[in-house]
């Protein structure tokens, strides 16, 4: 089994899609690395990219072409200033040239050099091949696969060995929920404590804290920015941003100038059930509106589902525990990350492989278990909460209208967050020893359902809402 860190499951990136934007962006960077290692980089005269299968079918709506160009230009998706995206892409489009890794100028005609192929490569639905011509006329090519959550792999899996070695050094190697529970029981530790020990075998505690703090800062910022930005989302569907109005109506006349003051202001509002529903929805919508406008979000475990985990954490901070601090955030993210990794090992977090159950379903399950730990649930209750959240997402299809990560995606995050809170509450009031469906069984069921699902419902925009609703109706 390969190691999966919390920092693999939760990573800072750019919207709108982890598999169709972040993955191809990272793949382009990996290709440049590969060319440099082989001393071929300086010899390049021409380049092109072939996108296959789901990457091609929903690539335009998911900004795959933009991501590939930014990756080829050598920009880092974590630090690249998103306000510069338009300028960089306009330059390539108007000059018909691209500065490979910011160093080597090559001719580049986006319409001809990024080729959208309807055919699927055998290894994975999200395939792409980068091609280069060298000065001596020889051709080089390399294929990558974006397997969900921003992860990229090659068919020959050269990095597999390193990941296997890292897994072997974990004090608590975990593949399944049952193993996680056994460690918690034997060590008398919570889920987050067990996960922290594993993370410490990869990096220092300071680095872990620093990394998790950065992740939370981006999560909070995406909620704050989304809740204070009005207008229409890009892409042609004319979707109105709703978090702005929701926040305005809920917060009333409170005055604040930054995210921390905003949290304090929310804590001072009177909240009944309806307001709680609206606040949680507002937080989730805010993140995914930022995501849909190519903003910076945390992939958790994907970009399409990036709103669920932050929304549930902020719910805890403003509704359940006004004294919540970074220690709570840390526990929450560690637990959520581990649950996500168990899904990745036993099933998939790629919508192109498993539909939306693999995105919103997994994020809801991660958030449910993590919230349960903060609410004082036992490890058994945490996994029960995760199981309940996924059980009621089983079979959910991926059918984004016009290939954009907007409808149904944005609202689905609100639904996933609310379902996570409900699943947590039910688990807290239950005896997990009486649960009929353990987490591992629901993961196996999700995977079987994924395999049975037709490709129409796996991020191809060839079924469901994507064909019932015409872009001209929007
Ligand atoms: S429908 Fe779900 S899986 Fe598909 S793009 Fe939207 S959020 Fe992602």
TrEMBL record:
Residues 5-156 form the Serine dehydratase beta chain domain. The keyword Nuclease does not apply. Its EC number is 4.3.1.17. Its cofactor is [4Fe-4S] cluster. It holds the Pfam family SDH_alpha. Keywords: 4Fe-4S, Gluconeogenesis, Iron, Iron-sulfur, Lyase, Metal-binding. It catalyses: L-serine = pyruvate + NH4(+). This is L-serine dehydratase. The lineage of its organism: Bacteria, Pseudomonadati, Bacteroidota, Flavobacteriia, Flavobacteriales.
């Amino acid at each position: 089994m390969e190691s999966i860190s919390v920092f693999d499951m939760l990573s800072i990136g750019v919207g709108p899609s982890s598999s169709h934007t972040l993955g191809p962006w990272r793949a382009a960077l990996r290709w440049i690395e590969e060319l440099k290692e082989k001393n071929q980089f300086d010899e390049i005269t021409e380049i092109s990219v072939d996108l296959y299968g789901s990457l091609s079918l929903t690539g335009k709506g998911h900004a795959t072409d933009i991501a590939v160009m930014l990756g080829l230009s050598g920009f880092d998706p974590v630090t690249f200033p998103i306000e510069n995206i338009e300028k960089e892409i306009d330059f390539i489009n108007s000059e018909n040239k691209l500065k490979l890794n910011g160093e080597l100028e090559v001719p580049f005609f986006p319409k001809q050099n990024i080729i959208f192929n309807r055919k699927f490569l055998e290894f994975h639905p999200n395939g792409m091949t980068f091609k280069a011509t060298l000065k001596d006329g020889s051709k080089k090519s390399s294929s990558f696969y974006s397997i969900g959550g921003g992860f990229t792999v090659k068919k020959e899996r050269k990095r597999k060995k390193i990941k296997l070695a890292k897994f072997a050094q974990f004090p608590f190697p975990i593949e399944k929920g049952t193993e996680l529970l056994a460690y918690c029981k034997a060590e008398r530790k919570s889920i987050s404590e067990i996960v922290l020990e594993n993370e410490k075998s990869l990096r220092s505690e300071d680095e872990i804290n620093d990394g998790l703090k950065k992740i939370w800062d981006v999560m909070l910022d995406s909620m704050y920015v989304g809740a204070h930005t009005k207008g229409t989302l890009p892409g042609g569907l004319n979707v109105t941003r709703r978090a702005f109005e929701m926040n305005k109506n809920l917060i009333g006349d409170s005055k604040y100038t930054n995210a921390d003051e905003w949290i304090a202001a929310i804590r001072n509002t009177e909240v009944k059930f309806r307001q709680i529903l609206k606040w949680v929805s507002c937080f989730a919508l805010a993140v995914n509106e930022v995501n849909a406008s190519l903003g910076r979000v945390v992939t958790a475990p994907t970009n399409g589902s990036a709103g669920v985990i932050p929304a549930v954490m902020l719910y805890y901070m403003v509704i359940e525990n006004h004294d919540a601090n970074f220690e709570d955030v840390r526990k929450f993210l560690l637990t959520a990350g581990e649950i996500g990794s168990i899904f990745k090992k036993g099933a998939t977090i790629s919508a192109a492989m498993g539909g939306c159950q693999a995105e919103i379903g997994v994020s809801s399950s991660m958030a449910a278990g993590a919230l349960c730990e903060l609410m004082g649930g036992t490890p058994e209750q945490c996994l029960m909460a995760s199981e309940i959240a996924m059980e009621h997402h089983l079979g959910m299809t991926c059918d984004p209208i016009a290939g954009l990560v907007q409808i149904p995606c944005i609202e689905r995050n609100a639904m996933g967050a609310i379902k996570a809170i409900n699943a947590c509450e039910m688990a807290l009031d239950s005896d997990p020893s009486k649960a009929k469906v353990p987490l591992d069984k629901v993961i196996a069921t999700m995977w079987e359902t994924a395999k049975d699902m037709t490709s129409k419902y796996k991020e191809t925009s060839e079924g469901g809402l994507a064909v019932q609703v015409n872009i001209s109706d929007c």
